[in-house]
């Protein structure tokens, strides 16, 4: 499985993905699930992928190949909305191609998040479904998750607000959310790729994603502090005298 | 949806279930998902249900009707293992009956937890699958969840240990786990039914389950304390200076 989170806040955008893929029980491996498309000072687009690995890799290969053609591609679409529509069409095309003759009971589906900023509009973020349609993040719902999303959802719901959450706090919350997910689900694993884009600051465009592994001192400090802190809060909550004796 | 948790600890057994059922978008209602079967001082059996409401209600009706017959039933089976097997057979029987001629794309499946103690053996706990087979809780894995289980799993993983967790702490952890689930998933709702059985103390058998609603002062104190505590721990975790400036 996979766990990916993306947030669109007033301060900017955050993307994070794990790197574990299991294609069958004896084939556990690490694959990148984060892809960047950029023109310095003009556009920055990030795609996160979850689902069938053959599908997601094919979609990304096709999108990359088309960058050199005459047609519509991620470096010439006029808006993020058009980028999401293009990603949706490509995803549908690959799923249709691969599942056409023989699918052997395999789910070829994939979910993707696409976000970023194109000069002339603000930062935007979309969740693209296997059916090719998509929804956009709003101020009320400033984040999307794909993959094993449930374990790490409560902390994001408690912390993240479009207007007020700065990017460093969003990053902290995202790593805590990954920690909860990794603790409860073996199929999500380190390292984590994380990338942040400040709103309207296209000079950030060339920074590579930060890769956070088991030995990352900040992630270690968060894990330990969160685990001890939770335990302390839990222990300090009152006990109810349920039994009379 | 539903959220149910059951734990088998050295100290005893705990069962908890929410009460929200949505059979279609405009039909949200409260139904009991906890059922007790008891013979004072001799046996105490509790069943928790999740899944298709028609299936779970039918299974419980059939199990109840058979209490008055000559055959095997929950008040005469010699062990909890046999109780789980009986529940599994009944579940399979109802699903087969209801889905036989026309299923209209509906999932008739249900998952159930059955636990308790029968005089002559220790407390036991089983998870019964829609296929009718089942697994038993062990000292390594002392709890089961059914329904919307993921949001509330991390806190249980962090806190509950078979040997050392007392029942009042298990109850506290269970309510925090419900709080996380209810915060993140609208389809799980209050009130919560909760029931605890101390190991080898059959005199508890006649206590009705405790029903915890929105106004329950203990649950309110836990919610507030947990929410504030989490926020405090989160705020005290270090921020990483991700951006240089």
TrEMBL record, chains A, B:
CDD domains noted in UniProt: proteasome_beta_bacterial
Pfam family, one: Proteasome
Protein name in UniProt: Peptidase
InterPro entries: Ntn_hydrolases_N, Proteasome_sua/b, UCP009120_prtse
Gene3D superfamilies tied to this protein: Glutamine Phosphoribosylpyrophosphate, subunit 1, domain 1
Coiled-coil regions, chain positions: none
């Amino acid at each position: 499985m996979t766990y990916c989170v993306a947030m669109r806040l007033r301060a900017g955008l955050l993307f994070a993905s794990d790197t574990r893929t299991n294609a069958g029980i004896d084939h556990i491996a690490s694959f990148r699930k984060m892809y960047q498309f950029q023109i310095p000072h003009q556009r920055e687009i990030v795609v996160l992928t979850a689902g069938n690995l053959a599908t997601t890799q094919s979609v990304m290969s096709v999108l990359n190949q088309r960058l050199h053609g005459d047609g519509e591609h991620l470096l010439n679409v006029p808006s993020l909305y058009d980028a999401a529509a293009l990603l949706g069409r490509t995803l549908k095309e690959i799923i249709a191609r691969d599942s056409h003759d023989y699918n052997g009971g395999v789910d070829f589906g994939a979910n993707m998040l696409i976000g970023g900023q194109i000069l002339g509009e603000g930062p935007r973020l979309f969740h693209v479904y296997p059916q090719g349609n998509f929804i956009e993040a709003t101020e009320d719902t400033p984040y999307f998750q794909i993959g094993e999303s449930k374990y790490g959802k409560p902390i994001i719901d408690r912390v993240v607000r479009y207007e007020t959450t700065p990017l460093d706090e969003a990053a902290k919350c995202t790593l805590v959310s990954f920690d909860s997910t990794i603790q409860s689900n073996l199929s999500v694993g380190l390292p984590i790729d994380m990338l942040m884009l400040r709103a309207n600051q296209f000079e950030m465009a060339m920074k590579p994603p930060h890769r956070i592994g088991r030995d990352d001192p900040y992630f270690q400090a968060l894990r330990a502090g969160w685990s001890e802190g939770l335990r302390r809060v839990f222990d300090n909550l009152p006990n109810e005298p349920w039994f009379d004796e």
